[in-house]
Amino acid sequence: MPDSKAVHGSRGGGSQRTSIPTFYRQVVAELRKVVYPTQEQLVTYFIVVMVFVVFMMVLVSALDLGFGKLVFTIFAGKSDT
Questions:
Q1: Number of domains in the chain
Q2: How high is the mean pLDDT of the chain?
Q3: Is the separation of the CB atoms in 37 and 45 below 8 Å?
Q4: Residue 12's pLDDT band (cuts 50, 70, 90)
Q5: What contacts 16, CB < 8 A, 6 or more positions away?
């Protein structure tokens, strides 16, 4: 496992708390490492997610309709009167 000062503390002690300014500096340093997607990537991801969600909605709806009809067919019972 890699030794990280953020995980283990800066002094090596197990119960040392990080001061608020140090914590703030670490947060800002980590946020500088974030790679944000371009607008083109964002649009592509959005379209992929929407297609997947619509596909899953259609699949679940079809299964619900099919199982519903199956259950009504099994339990409906024909009355001769």
A1: 1
A2: 86
A3: yes
A4: low
A5: 9, 10
For 36-74, the pLDDT digits (tens) are 999 999 999 999 999 999 999 999 999 999 999 999 999
**Domain membership flag for residue 62:** yes
Q: Is the dihedral of CA 31, 34, 40, 42 positive or negative?
A: negative
48 lies in some domain: yes
Task: Give the CA distances from residue 81 to residues 31, 46, 76, 78, in Å, rounded to whole numbers and listed in that order.
Answer: 75, 57, 14, 9
What whole-number distance in Å separates Cα of residue 80 and Cα of residue 58? 37
| Sign for the pseudo-dihedral over CA of 46, 50, 51, 53 | positive
pLDDT at position 34 over 70: yes
Q: Which two tokens stand for residue 9?
A: 């503390």
> How many alpha carbons fall within 13 Å on the CB side of residue 35?
1
The answer to the question of residue 29 being in a domain is: yes
